[in-house]
Design goal:
By secondary structure, this protein is α+β, with helices and mostly antiparallel strands. The protein has six helices and eight strands; from the N terminus they run H-E-E-H-H-E-E-H-H-E-H-E-E-E. Helix 6 (163-167) links the parallel strand 5 and strand 6.
């Protein structure tokens, strides 16, 4: 007989489903893969685009799912989708960094939410996806054009050492510790973290990169989860 999933598992499903959906939807919006590779799906009252390619869906799903435990502890509160030059698995300069910051409210994983809380969160998710849909009208074109030597990687940001080592390099190999916001402000707390540990420097914009701009997409605060895209 199958065991009933715990409340914690169900709560974690919510944030990992959001990160997965946002990744697929952003890849579609920025044209990293052909549009016909995606299909429309329902997500918390919104329509999102999700890849139909099994390898791509597996890669994104496995990467996000591997973060469930550190997310539950609050050790990971930022995941970045980096669109970069080159082919998958190769070095390449980042062209765009799509940042998903999230913070689980105290008690979120264990308390039963009210119907109002759930409706508020669903509306917040739908608003984020709606904004992502219009990225092409907000952001400048990807240099060199899409579908031309462009790929992506997912990078997790940790607020303490050892998360990548804990998960194992087969599950997740990119980790940043004691990170800065894309606007240059330090968002780490005082963990005495080694900022160079397991960092993928090529996934960051160079410090001397000219013309780097930040485009806020959506910030929303709910009784359950705060989200900044």
């Amino acid at each position: 007989t199958s065991q009933r999933r715990s409340q914690v598992d169900l709560r974690l499903d919510v944030i990992t489903e959001f990160l997965e959906a946002a990744t697929h939807h952003t890849l579609h919006a920025r044209g990293v893969y052909p549009k016909d590779l995606f299909e429309s799906r329902a997500f918390y009252g919104a329509r999102v685009q999700r890849s139909r390619h099994p390898d791509l869906e597996t890669y994104i799903g496995d990467a996000i799912h591997a973060l469930r435990v550190p997310i539950s502890r609050g050790d990971v509160q930022r995941v970045v989708l980096v669109i970069k030059e080159g082919d998958a698995g190769q070095d390449g300069l980042p062209l765009e960094r799509h940042v998903f910051d999230f913070c689980l409210r105290p008690g979120y994983l264990h308390k039963t939410p009210t119907a109002e809380d759930v409706n508020q969160l669903a509306a917040a998710f739908a608003a984020c996806m709606s904004k992502i849909s219009f990225l092409d009208s907000t952001l400048p074109p990807i240099p060199g054009g899409v579908l031309s030597g462009v790929t992506f990687e997912l990078v997790a940001y940790a607020n303490k050492q050892g998360i990548a080592r804990e998960l194992g390099t087969d599950a997740w190999s990119e980790e940043r510790v004691g990170v800065e916001n894309d606007d240059g402000r330090d968002r780490s707390t005082n963990y005495g973290a080694d900022r160079s540990m397991n960092s993928e420097k090529q996934m960051e914009f160079p410090a001397n990169a000219g013309g780097k701009q930040t485009y806020p997409v959506k910030t929303t605060k709910t009784n359950l989860i705060d989200i900044d895209v």
